[in-house]
Amino acid sequence: MKKLFSTLFILSLAFNSWGQNAEESPKINWLTIEELEAAQAKEPRKVFVDLYTSWCTWCHKMDKATFQHPGIVEYVNANFYAVKFNAESKDSIQFKGHTFKYVAQGRRGYNELAATLANGRLSYPTIVYLDEELNVIQPVPGYMDPKSFEQVITYLAGNHYKEQPFDQYKMNYELVYSLK
């Protein structure tokens, strides 16, 4: 059954992408923090917040390699709200009834929301996963290729994190989208 699903998925990707150029390829439906709370009120979903900075090379690499992968795009758009958040944003941000401000620190600084979501451990990129009530499930620092990212998002979207440790899940994991 899984082989059939994988084959059908690959065929549908090939059919859907046939004749399209790169500008027409599917993209993750990125939201802002402000848009997130409104979307959650209408249809609760799990969330991932991409904490990035403009100078982060690995953040840019993850944008290109992982967040543009067709299988990842499809899975994320169907199962999550995705938020891109510049961790060095100087704007005051309203989130869950609190105001988060910019904290100057030397030549650079950080937004308090980024520090709060990452449990005070700011490194980039960090993907922070939230549940349907916008509570932090887990921040995951570091670059992830499409295969690694898929393992994490399927683990969280399927609520497997409530039943088993991630290492155990990974041992029995089969790629949903047959990523290579």
Description of the molecule:
- This protein is α/β, with parallel strands linked by helices and 180 residues long.
- It has helices at 2-17, 33-42, 57-65, 70-79, 112-117, 146-157, 166-171, and strands at residues 30-31, 46-52, 80-86, 93-95, 98-100, 102-105, 108-111, 126-130, 136-141.
- A five-stranded mixed β-sheet has the order 1-3-2-8-9. A two-stranded antiparallel ribbon has the order 4-5.
- The longest helix is centred in the N-terminal third of the chain and has 16 residues, at 2-17.
- The model is unreliable at 1-22 (pLDDT under 50).
Kindly state the number of beta strands: 9
Principal-axes geometry comes out as globular
Percentage beta strand: 15-25%
Spatial extent as radius of gyration: 17 Å
The proportion of residues forming helix, as a percent range, comes to 25-40%
- Name the helix and strand elements from N-terminus to C-terminus, one letter apiece: HEHEHHEEEEEHEEHH
Structural class: alpha/beta
Q: Number of helix segments?
A: 7
* Mean pLDDT rating: 86
What strand line-up does the widest sheet have? 1-3-2-8-9
Through-space gap between termini: 20 Å
Topology:
Elements: H1 2-17, E1 30-31, H2 33-42, E2 46-52, H3 57-65, H4 70-79, E3 80-86, E4 93-95, E5 98-100, E6 102-105, E7 108-111, H5 112-117, E8 126-130, E9 136-141, H6 146-157, H7 166-171
Parallel strand pairs: 1-3, 2-3
Antiparallel strand pairs: 2-8, 4-5, 6-7, 8-9
Offer a concise description of the structure.
Helices cover 38% and strands 23% of the residues.
Which terms would index this structure?
180 residues; alpha/beta; two-stranded antiparallel ribbon; 9 strands; 38% helix; globular; disordered N terminus
